[in-house]
């Protein structure tokens, strides 16, 4: 009888991000990343990157520094692994912002006199075009 091993966290945003980012943008070995992040075992990086283990939330700042990404961005991705998959939890994750996102939100609030604007389809397209350039 054959059993197939399923990586329990392989389909999470943080795993998809770390797997691609570390392989393409970080010029360090897993051992160097682990040491810089404060782990004694480099296999933790591999386990997290492949979806075998959750990224512990208390390790996010160290890992973010080790690979050169914004800690709030990485925290938001990691938090998804620790929360139930439902609409209320998803809404909570939307409120964790990086400093760059806070600046964009500030510009929106300034432009709308701190109102609560509802975004139209045309505005959504315009914002997407503006930020894609």
Brief overview:
The protein is mainly α and 133 residues long. It is built from 8 helices and no strands.
Structure characterization notes:
With 133 residues, the protein is an all-alpha fold. The chain has two domains: 13-93, Orthogonal Bundle (434 Repressor (Amino-terminal Domain)); 99-132, no CATH class. It is built from eight helices and no strands. It has helices spanning 13-25, 30-37, 43-50, 60-67, 71-82, 87-93, 99-111, 121-132. Helix 1 runs antiparallel to helix 5 (71-82). It is globular, with a radius of gyration of 18 Å.
Topology, pairings included?
Layout: H1 13-25, H2 30-37, H3 43-50, H4 60-67, H5 71-82, H6 87-93, H7 99-111, H8 121-132
Helix pairs in contact: 1-5, 2-3, 2-4, 4-5
Give the tags.
133 residues, mainly alpha, 434 Repressor (Amino-terminal Domain), 8 helices, globular
Hey, roughly how much beta strand do the residues contain?
under 5%
Poorly predicted segments: none
Radius of gyration, CA atoms, in whole angstroms: 18 Å
Amount of helix: 55-70%
CATH topology type of the largest domain:
434 Repressor (Amino-terminal Domain)
The first-level CATH class of the largest domain is given as Mainly Alpha
The number of strands is: 0
